[in-house]
Every structure is written in C-alpha cells, then in structure tokens.
Amino acid sequence: MTTCVRGMVLCVLLAMMTDCGDKEEGIPALPQGFNPDTVTGSKTDLITKWLTEEKGPLAVDKQVSGKTSTYEWFHGYTLKLTAKDKLSFVGDGDYWGMLRIYGPQKTGGSWGYARAAAYIRPQGEEYVAELPFTVPEDGEYLAVIGSPWVGNYAYTLGSTCLSGSCKAKPHCLEYETTDAQGKPLQNFYAINVSSYAEGKQILAKMTNFINEAILPGTCASQSTGCPKVYLPVCGDSPGYPKKTYGNVCNFKAEIRTLAGATSEAKGHWEDGVCKASHCTIWEGANPDGTASHTFYAVNVFSYDEGKQLLAKVKYFLNEDILTGSCGSQLEVCPKVYKPICADTPTTSPKTFGNLCEFRFYVMNLAGDTGEHKGKWTDGVCPCDPAKEWWRKYVSTDVEECKVLKYYCQPYTWYFSNACGCGCEQSDECPEWINCMPPAPQSCTDLKKKCPYSKVAY
To answer: In sequence order, which residues have a C-beta less than 8 Å from that of residue 99 and are 6 or more positions away?
Structure first.
C-alpha cells in the first residue's frame, strides 16, 4: 500500500508542515509531511482547512455512506447539538481511516481544532471506529471521516444519541401536492417522523409541493382548533368514505388524526358538500318476515358501501341500490290512488296518493348526502285541528268550506280535509324554531318560511 502518493496538488502544502509521524503501534505511517493536528490560519487544523468537502447535514440516529476523492481526502457532515448531549459516532471504511469531531463552528466559519478523534482500525475483518462525544457547548458541529492513506475511500458514518436533548423528538410532516405547473391538486399528507431533520430529508427528495410544515409533536397531537367559518369541502382518505367538512382546516385535522402517533395518512378534498354516488333503499320487516311499514333511504358513496350497509340490516324487504344520490332520483310513480298516511321524524303526518309517492318523498328528504326514514299506515290521515300545529283552520265546517273564500299568507298553502279547511305551512318546517341566544343563522329565515311554528327565545 503506497502511503506517500495522494495527489501532487498537496505536496507543496504538506512540505511546509511539520513532519510528525504517528507513533502509535500498528498504525500505518502517515504520508510524508502530513500531521492532522497542524494548525493553520484562524486556528483551524489542516483537515478542515484544506482537505475536507462538506457534504451536508447528518441526522442524529441516522447513517450516511460515501466515497472520498483523490483531492478531497475527507468528507464532513454537520449536526446542530446542545451542550451536555452525549452521542456515539461510528465510522467504518475499506482501510485505515480517521473519524474526528469539530466544533462548534466559529463566527467566521472555521471549525477550530478536533474535539474528539479516533482511528478507523481493523476489528476482525472490518475497519471500524467508535467515538463517544459529550457536547461541550451549544452550536453546529462537524463530523469528519476519510483516510490520508488511500484515495477513493468508501465509508459509512452514523451517530447515536445516548442521552440529552439530541434524543429524537417526534414531529409531524405535512404538505400539499401540485401538478408540474404548480397548480394545487388539493391533496393533503400528514406523516409522523422521528425528528425535524428526518422531515427535512423527506422534503429534499420531493418536488411539486406547497404549504409544507414540520410541526413538533405527533400528527395526532396537533391542535384541532379551526375557525368557525362554513366553507364546506368534500374530503376522503383511502379506506374511508367521503364526508362533508365545515372547512379545509377541519378536513386536515381529520387526516392528522388518521395518521395517529406513528403512521401516516393522506386525503383529497373538493370544494362544496359531498354528493353521494348511490342511494340505498329498503323497507323494514319484522322477524317473522312481515312488513313493518317503514321505509329507509341512505346516501352512500359506492355500490359496495351500499351492500355493506344492507349486510348490517337484519330484516328488510324490497331493497335496492340506486345509481345517483337519493335527492337526485326522478319520481316515476303509477297514477293509482291507494292512499296512505305517512310521516317522518322531521315532518308531520300527510296523506299520499300511494306508497311510491311516499318513498320518493323520503328520498328527497335524504338529499344528496344524508339519510331519512318514514312510517305509514293504509288509508288517508285522520284530521284533528287541535293537534295539527302546522295548519291554521279557517273553518271546521266542511259545507261552509265549499263556498268560503279566504287568503293564505306567503309560504302557506290552501288545504281542505274531513275536518275543514284553511292554510298550512311546509311540512318540512319544524314544530319549534331555535332562536335562543346566540341565535343561529337559520332563525330569521325559518320564522319567515314557517309562520305557524313556535319560536324558542
């Protein structure tokens, strides 16, 4: 193995320095004129002043690999460390080498002298060095590895935190993606990483992203506080159904929650509320198979989701999974008069010409995103003016109603039945309108559209 020839570029430099060979037994003789501790300008030693190429950061508890060149004998990796941190640096190579720690870096950029040093020496069939290091003061440090004996030195270098603040602290890496032209794709990612440095390393390998952040703590521990602004978005994540969120902030909070404390999650959102792709409908049944006269309509976001929903229902009849949301279904019913009296949890009893009309009525109440149900009995609805809060009877004399003329105020309609006649409001109006302070935004509109509903102040 040649020990003197490492490139003529440095011959003059080395000749100017003290010729101090290493006296430790077993270590190959150093190149003529090479002393790693020779101090040059700004009190910086030879290695960091002339012979080291800085390669970038070295994350604690991580490992890097590389190969030096004929002109750069050593490679250096930076670490930001805190006083009293205890670390162990491990380096290996394909021949004898050196592992040295410098720092903290001075204001002018120099690294000073080596704080700790070890030879990469034979251990069995490998060349290895282990170098314990206690950080003397806060700052940026430089771990240097290489060999003055051979060129193109292949090595690996790693660091392990033994105690102190260098112990890896979890962070949450999050970002959104764009297309090649920079247009946002409305995709959001949340990834748990072991440290801030790991998050930076992931971002360094990526392209086409915006709104990136590396937040202290796990993704699940991030604040879920969001503004009370209703700008709905339809969001979903792989393996989870679509869902309407009050705003993008609420959607991102959900993705962070799915990522938990150790995993990762992603999702996509579209502006506006979610519109289901299918409508699952069925009629309830009793355990003996007889009809319970209950109808259900539920929006789902796939045919398979509809099948899974039906699998959870014990007893049912006349089930179907319709393409399109429940609210988008076009009413097609026979002109057959087989009256039923039906109501739902949010509407008053009403007479329908037949069961088909009532089924479409319930689907319409389910809308594009929700679900609804209703019960019915055969025949027209019995009337009882004392209980019909949604109506205002003008007369309870059926014969008088035949000739009586009267006026219904806006948002109400004429009606007549076996009990009399008068005006009624929409059967979608609630019996009570919530106007309790702080009054909801819907209070004023409902009072106008539902004049017969009672108001809670």
So the answer is: 89, 91, 117, 118, 119, 120, 129, 131, 143, 144, 145, 157
pLDDT, residue 40, reads 56
Residue 336 three-state SS? coil
Per-residue confidence (pLDDT) for residue 24, from 0 to 100: 56
Q: Measuring CA to CA, which residue among 143, 113, 149 is closest to residue 38?
A: 113
What is the DSSP pairing of strand 278-285 with strand 371-378?
A: unpaired
Look-up of token digits 């109808």: 295
3-state secondary structure of 373: strand
H/E segment holding residue 358: helix 355-366
190: exposed, middle or buried (Cβ count in 10 Å: 0-12, 13-18, 19+): buried
CB 46 within 8 A of CB 139: no
Burial (CB < 10 A; 0-12, 13-18, 19+), residue 18, is exposed
Q: Which amino acid is at 22?
A: D
Q: What pLDDT score does 25 carry?
A: 62
The pTM (predicted TM-score) of the whole model is 0.46
* Whole-angstrom distance, CA of residue 127 vs CA of residue 96: 6
Peptide bond into 104 cis (omega under 30): yes
Tokens encoding 145: 């590895």
Q: Supply the CATH classification number for the domain 8-163.
A: 2.60.120.380
Q: Which is nearest to 367 in space by CA: 319, 320, 327?
A: 327
Please state, in angstroms and rounded to a whole number, the distance separating the CA atoms of residues 296 and 112. Answer: 78
- ∠ at Cα 323 (318, 326), nearest 5°? 75
Per residue in 15-58, pLDDT (tens digit) is 333 333 344 568 899 888 788 876 654 556 778 888 999 999 99
Specify the pLDDT at position 20. Answer: 38
Average pLDDT over residues 304-319: 94
Cβ-contact 244, 233 below 8 angstroms: yes
Q: What is the CA radius of gyration of the chain?
A: 39
Per the DSSP assignment, residues forming a β-bridge with 131 are 89
Task: Provide the pLDDT confidence category of residue 345 given band limits of 50, 70 and 90.
Answer: very high
Let me know: does 174 contact 221? Beta carbons within 8 Å: no
Per DSSP, 39 falls in state B
Rounded CA separation 167/170 (Å): 10
In terms of DSSP bridges, do strands 97-102 and 420-425 run parallel, antiparallel, or are they unpaired? Answer: unpaired
* Main-chain dihedrals φ then ψ at residue 256, nearest 5 degrees: -60, -40
Do the strands 432-434 and 454-456 form a parallel or antiparallel pair, or are they unpaired? parallel
Domain boundaries, the chain: 8-163, 171-271, 275-382, 387-457
Burial environment of residue 52 by CB neighbours within 10 A (0 to 12, 13 to 18, 19 or more): buried
Sheet order of strands, 97-102 included: 52-57, 74-81, 139-146, 97-102, 114-123, 126-134, 86-93, 154-163, 63-67
